[in-house]
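Instructor's aside before we start: the two examples that follow are unrelated to each other. I chose them only because their records fit on one page, so don't look for a connection. First example below.
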Amino acid sequence: MRFLAPLACFAAALLAPVMAEAAPVADAATLSAVKSCAPARPCNAKLPVRVVVVTMFEIGKDTGDKPGEFQLWKERRHLSETLDFPQGWHNLAYDPETGVLAIVTGMGSIKSATAALALGLDDRLDLSKAYWLVAGIAGIDPEDASVGSAAWARYLIDGDIAHEIDAREIPKDWTSGYFALHSKGPMDSTPLEPVNGEMFELNPALQDWAFALTKDMALPDDARIAEARKAFKGYPNAKKPPFVLKGDNLAAMTFWHGAKMTRWANDWTRFWTRGKGEFVTSAMEETGTFQSIEYLTKVGRADRNRVMVLRAGSNFTMPPPGIDPAPYLLGENQGYAGMTAALESLYVVGGKVVDEITAHWDKYEASPPK
């Protein structure tokens, strides 16, 4: 991770002046009262939460070693207070000065859904006005962006709810053996309603606001990803240095890869969004997380209109032209070329939005920006 030190300095330099302005939101007495409450039990005191940072995994320790999605937030955001969270995958981290809470859900839509629901029902926390920022690494479509780039999503599409026939047994005129539940085959374009959670739409005004706030930011780059993107001839966006864009997320529990699968992801996104969405990033968790937030909204424990999804490319969803997908995927599994850059992009871009919300809570407490 030889690029981590300079990138860390880059991020810290950008964010330090803003972070210093954050006002305390939880006093020592409230914090002490909350920490005396048992998890998943009634609690008379509640910690006010302004932003929930949702990460999905960590590598090794929470600090001081090779970082996963959680570590940079933990180390740089002074998330000094730990709340036991045995009903989830990982303990919570909280900053009483800013009201920022971070969760590590665990990987996959099952863990993310159950962790988000458990968090929302935790009586120690007041999440009724909290903004949720999902910040995770992803595969990224080279047609749209380069590794290290960060995409704000409007649509979350589920890639698991479907019919499937093994590719070796599909009819000759079928384009795929994978097609929408209740459709008549992969070429059936008859619109369907996403009643089973096949697609969710986030608050478009909040996405526009977050993108406008961050679109001109310079993102970290490094020699490793600069070299890797040179091979994507014919993909001009893939050859650019990392940048901020809008782009939708497809969540599927299977880690898929290749040009044909990337074409499927684009088709799947267009189908479920009725042509309005653009597939850019692939991950596993978003639809599970958001489904739980939808349920929590119904009982006043969360607000679905305050959810943002930011994914940064740690790897491409397909290999460069002329390269077989199997060895390319297996090589990436030994360590994503864009892991460091993606984590830094998530922190820098997501951090700017977190800072804006926490430092100007008087503007954003009553309702989301428009």
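Example two begins here.
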Amino acid sequence: MSKFITYLNTRPVLVADGAMGTMLHKAGLLLGVSPERWNLENPDAVRAVHKAYLDAGADLILTNTFGGAPVRLERDNLHEQAHAVNLAAAQLACEIVGDRALVIGDIGPTGQMLEPLGALPYADAVNGFATQAAALVEGGVDAILIETMSDLGEAVAAIEGTKQVTSLPIMVTMSFDTKGRTMMGVKPEKAAETLWGMGVALIGANCGRTLSETLEAIVKMRAAVPEAVLMAKPNAGLPHTGDGELVYEVTPDIMADYAQQFVAKAGVKIFGGCCGSTPEHIRAVAAALKTI
């Protein structure tokens, strides 16, 4: 049995980390520069973020590879270094985490639309996700998280690509941010039925507009597939501009309160934070959930 499944089966609820991009921008990463670039060029900054979340009480630390798919790395001329970028990210996280928590290989969307709506062939998407997953596995991750998906077809492609290169547990979360659906019109119920039917270890929702909307989506996923193992990793609300920078409206105390609601109302097994969340948010969440 994998280390991840052991954690899942023996602990009431697991705490995932918070935002990576939010923290790296505070550390000086310029807007428009791929956060993944710093896995190679500023590894100390990435290590510092992982350590901050680990010290805050996170059980799961995600690699700095949300935009690590080769086609997405083309935006910053990093696609030829896709393997190195993802491998380094996994190694950095494992180095900091040691035996204190689990390292989760993070896979986000390609940023392109699949055929026939877009120009990206399905097979190319599968191959790209396989390349990314293989490097993360080589780097020592304990499981793979496919997150922030809007297109169900792309989520399936990511699952297929990952399964080509590893038997590690796979988690999949989608972002329900458009009137209760994903940007591509996918309902939580449909996502739950399709994704759980593919034999993954866990499904759920992340990102989104508000914690209440994400909670509603998770409740619908629970109703659609009662036996599913669920995860939620919502944003710290919607940002607004304050003193020349983005400010997120959800405080650590508010997020901790919602974390308890996600567990009580939908039985989520994993809760963490997405955009705008910080180690302070995760510390509050960990304190609230680890009393369960």
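The chain has one domain: 3-289.
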